[in-house]
Each structure stands twice: as structure tokens, then as C-alpha cells.
Amino acid sequence: MKKILIVFILIISSFFTVWGSVIASGDLTKQEPITVDVQLGDTDNSYLFVPSSLEFETGKLYKLVIHNVGKTKHYFSSEGLSRSVFTRKAQVLGADGKAIAEIKGSIREIEVYPGGTAEWWFVPVKSGNINDLKCTIKGHEEAGMVGKITIK
Predict the structure, then answer these.
(1) Does residue 11 sit in helix, strand or coil?
(2) How far is Cα 71 from Cα 114, in angstroms, rounded to an integer?
(3) Strand, coil or helix: what is 14?
(4) pLDDT tens-digit profile of 1-31?
(5) Nearest to residue 134, comparing CAs of 109, 151, 114, 116?
(6) Does 45 have pLDDT greater than 80?
(7) 18: buried, middle or exposed (CB in 10 Å: 19+, 13-18, 0-12)?
(8) At 139, is the secondary structure helix, strand, or coil?
(9) What is the pLDDT of residues 106-146, one digit of tens each?
(10) With contact defined as beta carbons under 8 Å apart, do 76 and 113 qualify?
(11) CB neighbours (10 Å) of residue 114?
């Protein structure tokens, strides 16, 4: 009986050691974000996202860095992405690269002025194909400023 009790205690303690490491690996406060850069740009004939196709995985922390390299303001807008992620924060960076504003909560659209940069920190929680990435400024979507997002 004593041997069975010792074996049972060893099994239980092993289970909690393994389970504890699984729980800690999901602790987003300890995850380093995966940085994904997107450029918003314009030429004489078209507007674009570079890259125009983005891929994320559920449960991982991302820092989406959005740079406007164009001559006009642009929007990074995706209702589908907004509904599929938990937003940790969004922040606006000054010319020196330091945060000058931080937004918390649900984000559907981010406006970035020429030469500006914004960061959106999020964790995808729902997988799927999202085909509604666009710039909602009049004429930009029609001129090619659209994209696709895949969440695995």
C-alpha cells in the first residue's frame, strides 16, 4: 500500500510539473512579440499595402508595425481582424520612435499620416481567412489598396 501511495504521489507531482509548464508557456506577459511590418504607400496610379497578404497564428503575441511611406494619409482597416483578435494595445510613435499615444480596447481602423508609424499589439483568438483589409479613404480601395489576412 505504501508503494502504491508513493507511485501515486510521483505521478500526480509529475502531472502538475508538466501542466504548470504548459500554463506558463501561454502567459502572454512573458511572450516576446512577433513583429510584422506593413507599409502603406501610394504611387501616381495606385495605392497599396506591402505586403498585401498577412498570416498570423492563434495564441501568439504580435506587434503589427504600420508605416505610412506614402504622400497621403491611409487607413489600415479590417473589421474581420478586429473580431478575430484580442487587442493588447495600439500606440502611435513620434518621429523619434517613442510612443506618444496608446489606445486600448477594440480596434477596427488605424489612420496613419504620411511618414507616421503605428503599432498594434494583439493575439489572434479565432482562425480563418479575412478578405476585408482595405483603406477606406475614397478611391484608395478601388486603386488597389486591399489585402488578405489568414489566421491559422
Answers:
(1) helix
(2) 5
(3) helix
(4) 555 545 445 455 555 444 443 444 566 667 8
(5) 109
(6) no
(7) exposed
(8) coil
(9) 888 999 999 999 999 999 999 999 999 999 999 999 999 99
(10) no
(11) 14
What DSSP line would sit under 63-108, residue for residue? EEEEEE-SSS-EEEE-HHHHHHEEEEEEEEE-TTS-EEEEE-S--S
User: How many angstroms separate the most distant Cα atoms in the chain?
Assistant: 83
- Residues 145, 46: Cα–Cα separation, whole Å: 8
Amino acid (one-letter) located at 149: I
User: Using CA atoms, how far apart are residues 152 and 133, in angstroms rounded to an integer?
Assistant: 17
Contact 40, 66 (CB under 8 A): yes
Cα–chain-centroid distance for residue 121?
5
For residues 54 and 71, what is the distance between their CA atoms, to the nearest angstrom?
A: 23
In sequence order, what are the beta bridge partners of 123? 86
